[in-house]
From TrEMBL:
<dbReference type="GO" id="GO:0004128">
    <property type="term" value="F:cytochrome-b5 reductase activity, acting on NAD(P)H"/>
</dbReference>
<dbReference type="GO" id="GO:0020037">
    <property type="term" value="F:heme binding"/>
</dbReference>
<feature type="domain" description="Cytochrome b5 heme-binding">
    <location>
        <begin position="4"/>
        <end position="83"/>
    </location>
</feature>
<dbReference type="InterPro" id="IPR036400">
    <property type="entry name" value="Cyt_B5-like_heme/steroid_sf"/>
</dbReference>
<dbReference type="Pfam" id="PF00173">
    <property type="entry name" value="Cyt-b5"/>
</dbReference>
<keyword id="KW-0349">Heme</keyword>
<keyword id="KW-0408">Iron</keyword>
<protein>
    <recommendedName>
        <fullName>Cytochrome b5 heme-binding domain-containing protein</fullName>
    </recommendedName>
</protein>
<keyword id="KW-0479">Metal-binding</keyword>
<dbReference type="GO" id="GO:0005737">
    <property type="term" value="C:cytoplasm"/>
</dbReference>
<dbReference type="InterPro" id="IPR051872">
    <property type="entry name" value="Cytochrome_b5/Flavoprotein_Rdt"/>
</dbReference>
<dbReference type="InterPro" id="IPR001199">
    <property type="entry name" value="Cyt_B5-like_heme/steroid-bd"/>
</dbReference>
<dbReference type="GO" id="GO:0046872">
    <property type="term" value="F:metal ion binding"/>
</dbReference>
Length: 84
């Protein structure tokens, strides 16, 4: 089983630019840097760079039909869990 690294909210907040872009979704940490240029919603993803997007991701209307793609992409970008 894969052991995931733990990151504090403070750690995640340091990765808040288009060149170094982490997000939190449901207590997991994702490195979305390589996805920044591919995001169909463009730079809107930056609004949550270094932040917890749990309450935002499912409510973007364009995300609903793309949800299976999003889940797959998140899985690829998973780097850790949030240390509470
Ligand atoms: C893991 C993959 C993805 C992540 C982490 C992600 C993340 C985000 C975030 C954080 C926002 C801003 C939400 C807000 O401001 O409330 C956003 C907006 C958006 N996303 Fe994604 N997204 C992903 C995949 C996709 C895909 C596959 C599509 C294709 C339909 C898409 C289309 C959009 C659109 C159209 C917006 C709104 C753009 C705007 O407000 O100008 N996203 N996304």
């Amino acid at each position: 089983m894969r052991v995931l690294k733990e990151y504090s909210i403070f750690d995640v907040e340091q990765h808040c630019t288009h060149e170094d872009l982490w997000i939190i979704y449901k207590d997991k940490v994702y490195n979305m840097t390589s996805y920044y240029n591919m995001h169909p919603g463009g730079l809107a993803i930056l609004r949550y760079a270094g932040r917890d997007a749990t309450l935002a991701l499912p409510f973007v209307s364009a995300h609903s039909f793309a949800w299976s793609i999003i889940e797959k992409k998140l899985e690829e970008c998973l780097i850790g869990v949030v240390k509470r």
